[in-house]
């Protein structure tokens, strides 16, 4: 009787699993196709994230909840987020260059891609078909997490540590590439002060943009707080010219100052 | 969890309703508490004590015009707030509100769902919630949104690490990853044998794992983008951050997600460190305190206390600068959590009476030495030393001395000359008054 109930339960579970599988599997495949076909890099990244999440749900359905949630946290939450970061900084309008340097590579790529797909499908199909889903091995009463922990920290301890070491080295190496060493320590008050009062440097504060300007014309120089002209504000392309006395004199155009 | 389907549905709807009500309440609560801290009344017009203020605000937001920038990426622009809200609500589904109760003759726990690794659901949801922020910023097609999103995402991702490490200590101590089981594990006291004297510490993890609790609370504030870590939308400095281009219901849903996250994080802190739904006093005081629906009072009381803490922080602390904030996260919280985890593991081996005595002494002593070394060699800022002699400068150019004493302000020294001003009317208003009198 109990066995029968268990069989019923297993059947119900597998029925639920099947329903979820047939809902999620097309979404996962659609995500993968979208990754390849989408024009925008961000859309491609999002499609990949969708596929990853579907895979995570598959793991959870196969009674590996820890693996499923770690997949969401690590792959979707951390790694894809880093991709998104980089893609966002590229700007939205940047497009891939469609110029082909290798002649006929498209045709070759399609042929080889189909070949690879056929090979993978055949190989995986042969390897997977006829497999029976086994109960998790190990002593009874041990949970999913305990089993993973035991495997990671006993059987696979050395490979695990080696992989983490390799990843750390890669991260530090990437940092080293991007890092630009600063020359010397931070400049203190003394150095700043000397630089400011060095010969050839105007020691006062530089005029703020537009603060002293009565006009935004390039012909109008900025004035320093003491009223003299700030040379940095003069355009090097517009030659300075002083009005002659005749030019500067009133023109009697308004009939007031006769 | 073998609930019938209808009970699951009821629970799901109840969790949703409770969260929405809590959000409406929290907004009002926050505004009132901050107002009291700043000696002003706060919202007090709509409904009793202004309780309906947030409802009115929400309705008003919903009726506003829904704008979409021309440069926006339409699908992602709409999907972003949906992702934010969905992740925020999903995370709450594994929070236990209370013990087993009987509902219409069915024994069930006051929790939507629980399984082996349910704490990870909350962490996964907060990891996915970042997508809402990042995509909102990117899809708006505006530089302000993009920069705001980058700030927000960098902040949330950085503090997620410290948060995860703090939660890891709870996993270490309880050897469990399920929220309900962690609450039950905290109900038992921690027996400690100190030189023959048996002491039973309270089992709540905020005592045993005090460093983790502190790190968790700091990281949790950073994770929810709340003051003093509200850099992504620093109200007085930036335009709404990643939500710059959003309006109407879409903007409201980001707001909703933020407050739901606040409630979820408070509830998670209560669950992991403050004994969950357990009553905050020994069982012997009131034997029935932890049975039936009574624990709901303790649970929501603790959550509200945490929300008060959030508001208190907002009312008290000034906002951090971005680099200070990142330094705190990466250079203080993460290393301290890592060292604390190692110390905790060593202490657990050292205090375990099943091990041999030399092993125990070695591990406990090693942990103590690491802690002492950390306190001793903690890098501190070089103290400022006064220069021995004033700087004479280079080549005779004047350089202000480093020990410059500011001379007294001449204006404050000037004596006012006694003037005969009383006969003259000081301002126009007085003269008009006089005219009217005439």
TrEMBL record, chain A:
The chain crosses the membrane at residues 19-37, 44-61, 67-87, 107-128, 162-181. The keyword ATP-binding does not apply. NDH-1 shuttles electrons from NADH, via FMN and iron-sulfur (Fe-S) centers, to quinones in the respiratory chain. Couples the redox reaction to proton translocation (for every two electrons transferred, four hydrogen ions are translocated across the cytoplasmic membrane), and thus conserves the redox energy in a proton gradient. Its EC number is 7.1.1.-. This is NADH-quinone oxidoreductase subunit J. It is a multi-pass membrane protein. Its main location: membrane. It is an enzyme of class 7 (translocase). It comes from the Bacteria. Keywords: Cell membrane, Membrane, NAD, Oxidoreductase, Quinone, Transmembrane, Transmembrane helix. Residues 188-197, 249-258 have a biased composition (Basic and acidic residues). InterPro entries: NADH_UbQ/plastoQ_OxRdtase_su6 (IPR001457), Nuo/plastoQ_OxRdtase_6_NuoJ (IPR042106). It comes from Glycomyces albidus. One of its GO terms (cellular component) is plasma membrane. It catalyses: a quinone + NADH + 5 H(+)(in) = a quinol + NAD(+) + 4 H(+)(out). Residues 183-258 are annotated as: Disordered. Belongs to the complex I subunit 6 family. It is found in: Cell membrane. GO terms for molecular function: NADH dehydrogenase (ubiquinone) activity; oxidoreductase activity; quinone binding.
From TrEMBL, chain B:
Keywords: Cell membrane, Membrane, NAD, Oxidoreductase, Quinone, Translocase, Transmembrane, Transmembrane helix, Ubiquinone. GO terms for molecular function: NADH dehydrogenase activity; oxidoreductase activity, acting on NAD(P)H, quinone or similar compound as acceptor; quinone binding. It is found in: Cell membrane; Membrane. It catalyses: a quinone + NADH + 5 H(+)(in) = a quinol + NAD(+) + 4 H(+)(out). It comes from the Bacteria. One of its GO terms (cellular component) is plasma membrane. Residues 387-438 are annotated as: Disordered. InterPro entries: NADH_UbQ_OxRdtase_su1/FPO, NADH_UbQ_OxRdtase_su1_CS. It is a multi-pass membrane protein. Residues 418-430 have a biased composition (Polar residues). One of its GO terms (biological process) is aerobic respiration. Its EC number is 7.1.1.-. Its main location: membrane. PROSITE patterns: COMPLEX1_ND1_1 (PS00667), COMPLEX1_ND1_2 (PS00668). The keyword Nucleus does not apply. The chain crosses the membrane at residues 6-29, 75-97, 117-140, 161-183, 203-222, 259-280, 292-312, 332-351, 357-378. The keyword Transferase does not apply. Belongs to the complex I subunit 1 family. NDH-1 shuttles electrons from NADH, via FMN and iron-sulfur (Fe-S) centers, to quinones in the respiratory chain. The immediate electron acceptor for the enzyme in this species is believed to be ubiquinone. Couples the redox reaction to proton translocation (for every two electrons transferred, four hydrogen ions are translocated across the cytoplasmic membrane), and thus conserves the redox energy in a proton gradient. This subunit may bind ubiquinone. NDH-1 is composed of 14 different subunits. Subunits NuoA, H, J, K, L, M, N constitute the membrane sector of the complex. This is NADH-quinone oxidoreductase subunit H. It comes from Glycomyces albidus. The lineage of its organism: Bacteria, Bacillati, Actinomycetota, Actinomycetes, Glycomycetales.
């Amino acid at each position: 009787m109990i066995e029968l109930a268990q069989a019923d339960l297993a059947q119900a579970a597998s029925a639920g699993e099947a329903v979820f599988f047939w809902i999620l599997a097309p979404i996962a495949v659609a995500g993968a196709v979208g990754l390849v076909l989408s024009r925008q890099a961000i859309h491609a990244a999002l499609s990949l994230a969708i596929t990853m999440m579907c895979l995570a749900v598959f793991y959870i359905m196969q009674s590996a909840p820890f693996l499923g949630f770690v997949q969401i946290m690590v792959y979707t939450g951390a790694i894809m987020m880093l991709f998104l970061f980089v893609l966002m900084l590229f700007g939205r309008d940047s497009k891939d260059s469609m110029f082909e340097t290798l002649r006929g590579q498209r045709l070759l790529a399609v042929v080889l891609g189909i070949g690879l797909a056929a090979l993978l499908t055949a190989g995986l199909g042969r390897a997977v078909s006829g497999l029976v889903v086994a109960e998790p091995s190990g002593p009874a009463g041990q949970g999913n997490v305990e089993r993973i922990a035991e495997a990671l920290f006993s059987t696979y301890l050395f490979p695990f540590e080696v992989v983490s070491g390799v990843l750390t080295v890669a991260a530090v190496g990437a940092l080293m590439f991007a890092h630009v060493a600063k020359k010397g320590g931070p400049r203190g008050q003394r150095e700043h002060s000397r630089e400011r009062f060095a010969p050839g440097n105007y020691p006062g504060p530089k005029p703020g943009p537009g603060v002293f300007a009565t006009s935004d014309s390039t012909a109008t120089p900025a004035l320093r707080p003491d009223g003299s002209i700030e040379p940095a504000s003069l355009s090097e392309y517009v030659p300075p010219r002083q009005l002659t006395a005749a030019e500067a004199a009133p023109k009697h155009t308004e009939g007031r100052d006769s | 969890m073998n609930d019938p389907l209808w009970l699951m549905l009821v629970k799901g709807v109840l969790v949703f309703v409770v969260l929405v009500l809590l959000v409406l309440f929290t907004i009002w609560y926050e505004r009132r508490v901050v107002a009291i801290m700043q000696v002003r009344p706060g919202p007090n017009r709509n409904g009793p004590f202004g309780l309906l203020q947030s409802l009115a605000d929400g309705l008003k937001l919903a009726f506003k015009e829904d704008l979409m920038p021309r440069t926006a990426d339409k699908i992602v622009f709409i999907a972003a707030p949906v992702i934010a809200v969905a992740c925020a609500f999903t995370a709450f589904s594994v929070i236990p509100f209370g013990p087993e109760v009987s509902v219409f003759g069915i024994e069930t726990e006051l929790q939507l769902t629980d399984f082996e690794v349910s704490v990870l659901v909350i962490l996964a949801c907060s990891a996915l919630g970042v997508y809402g922020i990042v995509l909102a910023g990117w899809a708006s097609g505006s530089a302000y949104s993009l920069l705001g999103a980058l700030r927000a995402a960098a902040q949330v991702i950085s503090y997620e690490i410290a948060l995860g490490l703090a939660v890891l200590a709870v996993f270490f101590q309880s050897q469990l990853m399920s929220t309900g089981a962690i609450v039950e594990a905290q109900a038992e006291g921690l027996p400690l044998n100190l030189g023959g004297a048996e002491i039973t510490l309270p089992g709540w993890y905020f005592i045993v794992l005090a460093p983790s609790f502190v790190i968790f609370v700091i990281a949790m504030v950073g994770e929810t983008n709340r003051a003093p870590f509200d850099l992504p939308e620093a109200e007085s400095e930036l335009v709404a951050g990643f939500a710059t281009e959003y309006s109407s219901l879409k903007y409201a849903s980001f707001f909703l997600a933020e407050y739901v996250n606040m409630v979820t994080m408070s509830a998670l802190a209560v669950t992991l460190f403050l004994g969950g739904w357990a009553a905050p006093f020994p069982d012997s005081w009131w034997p029935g305190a932890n049975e039936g629906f009574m624990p709901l009072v303790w649970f929501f009381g603790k959550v509200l206390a945490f929300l008060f803490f959030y508001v208190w922080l907002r009312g008290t602390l000034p906002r951090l600068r971005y680099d200070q904030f990142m330094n705190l996260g990466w250079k203080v919280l993460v290393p301290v959590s890592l060292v604390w985890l190692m110390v905790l593991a060593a202490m657990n081996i050292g205090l375990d009476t099943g091990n041999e005595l030399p092993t125990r002494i070695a591990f406990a002593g090693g942990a103590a030495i690491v802690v002492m070394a950390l306190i001793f060699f903690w890098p501190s800022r070089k103290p400022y030393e006064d220069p021995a002699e004033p700087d004479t400068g280079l080549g005779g150019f004047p350089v202000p001395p480093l020990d410059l004493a500011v001379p007294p302000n001449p204006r404050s020294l000037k004596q006012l000359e006694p003037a005969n001003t009383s006969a003259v009317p000081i301002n126009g208003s007085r003269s008009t008054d006089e005219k009217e009198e005439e």
